[in-house]
Amino acid sequence: LRFDEKVRVVVFKSEVKGVFCAGADLKERAKMDDAEVGHFVKRLRSLMDEIAALPVPTIAAIDGYALGGGLELALACDLRVAASSAKMGLIETTRGLLPGAGGTQRLPRCVGIGLAKELIFTGRQIDGQQAFSMGLVNHTVPQNNEGDAAYQRALTLAREILPQAPFAVKMGKLAINRGMEVDIASGMAIEGMCYAQNIPTRDRQEGMAAFREKRPPQFIGK
């Protein structure tokens, strides 16, 4: 996906009705020795980092349970859409664990330190409406009979992104992600570097021409 220039948006959904991702198989985990557990979690953390580093926007469509590593997967995405009936939580402390695939870092960056600590310390599960109220998800929707309401809303959101200039969107994502990790002066410098890369693109010229000619732009990602 990283190197496929035809990909504009990636939507993560489940093929299992009622479950987005239920996290690690603890029965499988119980058979591992300490070294194997450490290796497993390290690989899982690397996978989440790879998802977070995808250059195009990513959307998690949470139509059911997103627990433990499942919520960490959703947190690795740029945007999250949830059915109001979905259940989410970093429940690791209820199993004698702590989040190990990015949850302790991405949740506080998403909802703030205080809420993140409360959710992780308690292992509490929340529904889609509660997640929306605290900013954990971008949108919440009532579940439909097919059980894919969040996926359908995610597709609508993806279709809003698709017409926009692909390279500009990628640079916008890069500037936000890198800038959030540094002070604002450094962030401004990162924005400037990303903007400079966008200046010579054909899409920028097309955007200006379309504005002058009062027509929709036809972006090509170059």
Any descriptors?
222 residues; alpha/beta; 2-enoyl-CoA Hydratase, Chain A, domain 1; Lyase 2-enoyl-coa Hydratase, Chain  A, domain 2; 2 domains; 4-stranded parallel sheet; 4-stranded mixed sheet; 8 strands
In short:
With 222 residues, the chain is an alpha/beta fold. It is built from ten helices and eight strands. The protein has helices spanning 26-30, 34-52, 69-76, 103-111, 113-122, 128-133, 149-161, 166-179, 184-198, 202-213, and strands spanning 10-12, 19-21, 58-62, 65-67, 79-83, 87-89, 126-127, 139-141.
What features would you describe in this structure?
By secondary structure, the chain is of the alpha/beta class. The protein folds into 2 domains: 10-162, 2-enoyl-CoA Hydratase, Chain A, domain 1, CATH 3.90.226; 166-213, Lyase 2-enoyl-coa Hydratase, Chain  A, domain 2. It is 50% helix and 12% strand. The protein has helices at 26-30, 34-52, 69-76, 103-111, 113-122, 128-133, 149-161, 166-179, 184-198, 202-213; strands at residues 10-12, 19-21, 58-62, 65-67, 79-83, 87-89, 126-127, 139-141. It has a 4-stranded parallel β-sheet with strand order 1-3-5-8, sandwiched between helices. It has a 4-stranded mixed β-sheet with strand order 2-4-6-7. The longest helix has 19 residues, at 34-52. It is globular. It starts with 9 loop residues before the first strand and ends in a 9-residue tail after the last helix. The mean pLDDT is 94. One of its GO terms (biological process) is fatty acid beta-oxidation.
